[in-house]
Amino acid sequence: MKRVLIAAPISEKFKRFLIEKNYELRYLGETIIEAELQATIVGIVTSNRLLLDKNNLQQYSALQWIARLGSGMEIIDTEYCTLHNIFFCSAPQGIANSVAEHTIGMLLGLIHRISSANNEIKAGKWIREPNRGIELENQVVGIIGYGHTGSAVAKKLAAFTNHILVYDKYKTGFSNTYLKETSLAELQEKASIISFHVPLKSDTFHYYNDAFCDAMQHNHILINTSRGAVANTDSILKGLEKGKISGACLDVLEEEKNIEKVLTETNNKVQQFYKHQVILTPHIAGYSLNAIEKMSQELLDQLKIIL
User: Which of 5, 20, 65, 272 is deepest in the core (most CB within 10 A)?
Assistant: First the structure.
């Protein structure tokens, strides 16, 4: 029996395709994946829920392919897959629009104080003067990473401001009518808002840290909708305390892997964030219903070639 382990939400169309290819679908969490079952798994559809490092991959002796719903491949040991002829693919384009909309939504909510003002009214307070907003068109926005998501964010931002600076360590020659390709130093000199759109790798771990914060010439808003470990939590809290960070929009946190435990702790880091102008969401930027359909189709198109 050929079995596929489903460890991510996928479209009904994707499920039908797999069933028509005579795969039996097994779902993570539905039952314990014991050794006997693992040996029959030939395909895995996963997201952040399942870490497929070398030790885990060795348990799936019949594995032929992995489809990653989303963009970051840090959860999969791709070197092991290559050595053992395991096909792998991802769906970075499918989440780009969702993440871009979420990024701008969080930013607009923060600078126009929509969330905090709403909470005040819930508490019976009608406060206007301290809730004056800041218009985005007057801000210089710095984007780090010009892949599928970074480029989608820049395109949408162009409707709000013509002051967009973009830095990408691995790309050049992408300046256009609404953004300027720049160096990291110029971005840190001029930007008042900075948004990260990079994968989590050795050179992006704690990309935003104390030194990065200090290098920013202006008090700034920090946005991270990429991976939690791209921005050092302690550095963000320090920056907020000092006033160097004037606000933050965070869809991802370093503490996600044990977030349930963290949230039960007294005066935990999440609670500390709420002492400042911060908007947090639970890693849902790329998790829209539309994005799931798009990602499923993107993976389906790649798997059709090999299945």
Answer: 5
Q: What's the pLDDT score for residue 126?
A: 97
pLDDT in tens, 228-272: 999 999 999 999 999 999 999 999 999 998 999 999 999 899 999
Cα distances from 8 to residues 99, 155, 205, in angstroms, run: 18, 29, 25
Distance between CA atoms of 8 and 291, rounded to whole angstroms? 13
Alpha-carbon distances of 201 from 82, 186, 228, 230, 250, rounded to whole Å: 18, 23, 12, 9, 19
Residue 14 burial (CB < 10 Å; 0-12/13-18/19+)?
Answer: buried
**Which pair of tokens denotes residue 38?**
């693992």
Model pTM? 0.91
**Predicted local confidence at residue 188, as pLDDT:** 98
Element (H, E) at 300: helix 289-306
Q: Identity (one letter) of the amino acid at 266?
A: T
How wide is the angle at C-alpha 147 spanned by C-alphas 146 and 148, nearest 5°? 125
What is the secondary structure of 200-222 as a DSSP string?
Answer: --TTTTT-BSHHHHHH-SS-EEE
Q: How many CA atoms lie within 13 A of 85 on its CB side?
A: 3
Sheet holding 24-27, edge to edge: 24-27, 3-7, 41-46, 65-68, 87-90
